[in-house]
Amino acid sequence: MELLRTRAALPDVRWAETSPSTNAELRALVVTETGRDAAGIPHGTLVATSDQTAGRGRLDRGWVTPPNTSIAASLLVRGFGASGLGVSWLPLLAGSAIVTALQPCFTAAAEAAGGEAKRVGVKWPNDVHVRDEEDAIAGRPGKKLCGILCELLPGDTTGGHTVIVGTGINLLIPEWELPTDRATSLLAAGADTGGAESLADAAGRDLADRVLSEYAKELLRLVRLAADDPGAARARIARHSLTIGTEVRVHLPGDRIVDGRARALAADGSLVVDLPTGGELTVSAGDVEHLR
């Protein structure tokens, strides 16, 4: 795939017609056989495919979609956390960047139909969803468009962390091929896809290029903002959150379940949940379910 916009925005873009895992491919480029960082691979390097055959998500869950319907992309971020926000904020920054890339597709569809646009937002800690007005009233996050998985690599010489930011973005999966009833795609959710039916056709390639370039540019911009003005980066994340302000059920390690109201993000990006009996719970690891 040519990806002219994306190649113009990034120092190195590598497209694979098929890949077991773009995270694994990028990791193999960066980490040498001795376990050291191959420092010549630049910040902003991207590996992407429309046919990932053995992708993994958070908690080692599988992520496989029909070929030419979704994009798996892995972006290399160097030196993160040397100043400003810590590395635990990176999945949320990536989610915000995905929102920036995908929201225009729903805005364009709504303008053409003369209605209200569905809202794309981030469900804590690492999923991007789209929801309609009915979802918003009920406090539901809507359906999942994208998952994010960040992997720490050996430290680089600039300080901070070297991180692979992996994303799986559902673009053209037909409704009948969606993996679960909690998932969706741009196509299935009624977004403007420019007439694309497959990422193998011209319109599909253009859609993939637009989404990838906007996402990558925005994430690299937010990475700089997180170092230079962490307060502004945190405000951006909060603005895109679908979880803050909603009733949630937190599934904690050890099969413990806690209900409460998500109130804010802590200094390290953890979720602060107000408990109905008083007090609060700070959640740094665990699944969060939005209660209806």
From TrEMBL:
Which residue range or ranges hold the BPL/LPL catalytic domain? 40-170
Q: Which UniProt keywords apply?
A: Biotin, Ligase
Q: What is its EC number?
A: 6.3.4.15
- Pfam families linked to this entry: BPL_C, BPL_LplA_LipB
According to the UniProt entry, its GO molecular function terms are: ligase activity
Broad class of enzyme this protein falls into: ligase
CDD domains given in the database record: BPL (cd16442)
Transmembrane segments in this chain: where? none
Q: Which SUPFAM superfamilies match?
A: Class II aaRS and biotin synthetases
Highest taxon in the source lineage: Bacteria
Asked if the record carries the keyword Ligase, the reply is: yes
Query: For the Biotin protein ligase C-terminal domain, which residue ranges apply?
Result: 243-290
Q: What is this protein called?
A: biotin--[biotin carboxyl-carrier protein] ligase
Q: Which organism is this entry from?
A: Leucobacter manosquensis
Organism taxonomic ancestry = Bacteria, Bacillati, Actinomycetota, Actinomycetes, Micrococcales
